[in-house]
Design a protein that fits this description.
heterodimer, A: mainly beta, 7-stranded mixed beta sheet, 4-stranded antiparallel beta sheet, 11 strands, B: mainly beta, 6-stranded mixed beta sheet, 5-stranded antiparallel beta sheet
Chain lengths: 113, 111
Amino acid sequence: KAGVTQTPRYLIKTRGQQVTLSCSPISGHRSVSWYQQTPGQGLQFLFEYFSETQRNKGNFPGRFSGRQFSNSRSEMNVSTLELGDSALYLCASSQGGMNTEAFFGQGTRLTVV
Amino acid sequence: GQQLNQSPQSMFIQEGEDVSMNCTSSSIFNTWLWYKQDPGEGPVLLIALYKAGELTSNGRLTAQFGITRKDSFLNISASIPSDVGIYFCAGRPTSGSRLTFGEGTQLTVNP
């Protein structure tokens, strides 16, 4: 069974631009969660999608948005990029139930210059 | 919201030593997960716990779900250099699906 796939692995963008990151979950998994990881800040929860609906949302500004497609693949978008958005963006895939495991992709390293 | 306190923040040990780290929560959790992350990579799931008091092993790793349901422990026996990395605990509350993560324990193993 294929794991969680995130694309691209690395990205360099300029301030003010926007970016779209993609996450393909494990086959059969309906939940995708997104996290931002920066040095010293740990894993900060962005949002969770389950069956194409946003189920949970973290405390990030509206510049951060996401969506999920009918095949459970998810995208997150960051508009009007700021230098502080430079981070490793991780997605986690799970079946979505209360007692289920979550599996991470390798992440997308975003650098904003 | 839920808070997870993970300790210690960092550990420097000699190869062959045993390691212990733990997480405590202000809320009751019904799931505890332990992950290891190498630099520049995503966290890899090590052990999943679903019942209070549960003790689960994965090779040299052993984790326990505390009986109060507010804490969990991870032990690594006979550490080796490839154990180096950041270890994260994560918990899921009794209501809701969102995982809360600890701040991580940075483990360094000296050969």
